[in-house]
Design a protein that fits this description.
Oligomer: single chain
Structural class: alpha/beta
Radius of gyration: 19 Å
Order of helices and strands: HEEHHHHHHEHEHEHEHHEHHEE
CATH class of the largest domain: Alpha Beta
CATH superfamily of the largest domain: Vaccinia Virus protein VP39
Length: about 350
C-alpha cells in the first residue's frame, strides 16, 4: 500500500507543503525511517553495491543505456531531475526528495521507478552526506555553546535548498542538550532558487509544533537570493550579525565547495570569516579526487569540481580556515573548517 502523509505523521514524522502545493516528509536523522548506519562495515557494503551498479551499467551498450534512461525519465520525476533536466546542477527540492528514501516518498515522487531510483547506492550516499553534515554541525555547536550564554545563533547555509542539514544539526542537538538552544536561532538560506527555502521554512514550522522535534525553540528560517560569484549580500549579512554579537556558523552541502570556482570559494570564506570576527566554523562537502570516485559523481553531466582535500585545504587556508574534523562517503569528504 502506498505511503500517505497520514501514515508518516502516525510514525512521528513531520510533513510540510512545497511551493507547488504537495506534501513531503521532513527528514529527521534521529528517526529510524531516515537514520543511516555509518559504521565502517555498512559504508563499505554500500560502496561495494555502488561499484556493482556501475559495473552492470558499463556492460550495457551505450545506445541501449540511453533508451533505458529516456524511458525511466518518463516514469520518474526523480530520475528526470537527475538525468533529463538539461541543467548542469540539481535543484534543491529534487535533491531533497532524493534523500527521503524509497519508503518515505509521497506524490509526485512515489512511482515504482521513483522508489527504485531512491533506493540506489548513489542516492543513499547523498542521504549519508547530509546526515554527516548535520552531525558535524551538532558536534561543533555542542562544543562551543553554553547554557549561560544566550547570544543569538545564526546558521548561514549557502546554496542550501531547504537547509535540511542545518535543521537536522539543531534536531540532533535538541535531542541531547536542548538547553544549549534556548536562544533565538535563525537559519539563513542563501540560494538562487526559492522553492527549497520555501519548503524549509514550512518544515521548521511543523517541527516547532506541539510534539515536534524543535517544539519550544525559537527557530526561524529565512531566504535571501544569492549567487556565490557576488559576495556582497553575504558580506552585508555577516557584518550585521557581527555587529549584533551573534554566534555564527555556516554550511554548504553539495554546493559551494563542489561546484564553485577556487576564486568563489576563497571569496565566500573570506566574507564568512570577516577578518576573524564572523563565522568560527564552516561545514561543507568536498568532492574527492580519486579517479574511481570522481567518475561516480557524474562529473561529466554536472559541473562538479573533484578537487579533493589536498587542493581544497590550501584554498581554505588562504581565507583563514583550517580543516578540522572529517567524515567520508564514497565520493566526498564532509569537512569542518575552523577559523584560524
Amino acid at each position: 500500500m502506498p505511503t500517505t502523509a497520514e501514515d508518516l505523521r502516525r510514525t512521528g514524522i513531520a510533513v510540510a507543503r512545497t511551493m507547488e502545493g504537495y506534501d513531503l516528509p521532513v527528514i529527521d536523522v534521529t528517526h529510524p525511517c531516515f537514520a543511516l548506519s555509518e559504521d565502517p562495515e555498512s559504508v563499505q557494503a554500500l560502496y561495494d553495491a555502488l561499484l556493482r551498479d556501475e559495473e552492470r551499467n558499463r556492460r550495457v551498450p551505450k545506445f541501449l543505456l540511453r533508451m533505458m534512461v529516456k524511458s525511466a525519465a518518463k516514469r520518474s520525476r526523480l530520475f528526470r531531475a537527475m538525468f533529463g533536466s538539461g541543467t548542469s546542477y540539481l535543484d534543491g527540492l529534487s535533491t531533497y526528495a532524493m534523500k527521503l528514501g524509497p519508503d518515505n516518498l509521497l506524490p509526485p515522487y512515489d512511482t515504482p521507478m521513483d522508489r527504485r531510483f531512491a533506493a540506489t547506492p548513489h542516492v543513499t550516499f547523498m542521504r549519508l552526506r547530509m546526515q554527516q553534515m548535520a552531525h558535524l554541525l551538532a558536534d561543533w555547536l555542542a562544543s562551543k555553546l553554553t547554557a549561560s550564554d544566550r547570544r543569538e545563533l545564526h546558521l548561514i547555509n549557502i546554496a542550501g535548498g531547504p537547509g535540511m542539514d542545518s535543521i537536522n544539526g539543531l534536531i540532533l542537538l535538541a535531542c541531547k542538550t536542548p538547553e544549549l538552544l534556548r536562544r533565538p536561532i535563525t537559519i539563513h538560506v542563501l540560494d538562487l532558487d526559492g522553492a527549497g527555502p520555501f519548503f524549509g521554512e514550512r518544515a521548521v514550522s511543523q517541527l516547532k509544533a506541539k510534539g515536534g522535534r524543535l517544539h519550544g525553540l525559537d527557530v526561524t528560517l529565512t531566504h535571501r537570493p544569492y549567487d556565490w560569484k557576488e559576495t556582497s549580500t553575504l558580506e552585508t549579512l555577516v557584518e550585521e550579525l557581527v555587529w549584533q554579537g551573534s554566534v555564527i556558523a555556516a554550511m554548504s552541502e553539495g554546493g559551494l565547495f563542489e561546484y564553485g570556482s577556487d576564486e568563489a570559494i576563497i571569496a565566500n570564506l573570506k566574507a564568512l570569516r570577516a577578518d576573524g570576527r564572523g563565522a568560527r566554523c564552516v561545514i561543507g562537502s568536498v568532492t574527492r579526487t580519486q579517479q574511481e570516485r570522481a567518475r561516480l559523481t557524474g562529473a561529466s553531466q554536472f559541473k562538479i569540481i573533484p578537487r579533493g582535500l589536498e587542493v581544497f585545504a590550501p584554498l581554505a587556508a588562504q581565507a583563514g580556515f583550517r580543516v578540522g574534523e572529517i567524515r567520508q562517503t564514497a565520493w566526498s569528504d564532509q569537512v569542518e573548517l575552523r577559523a584560524i
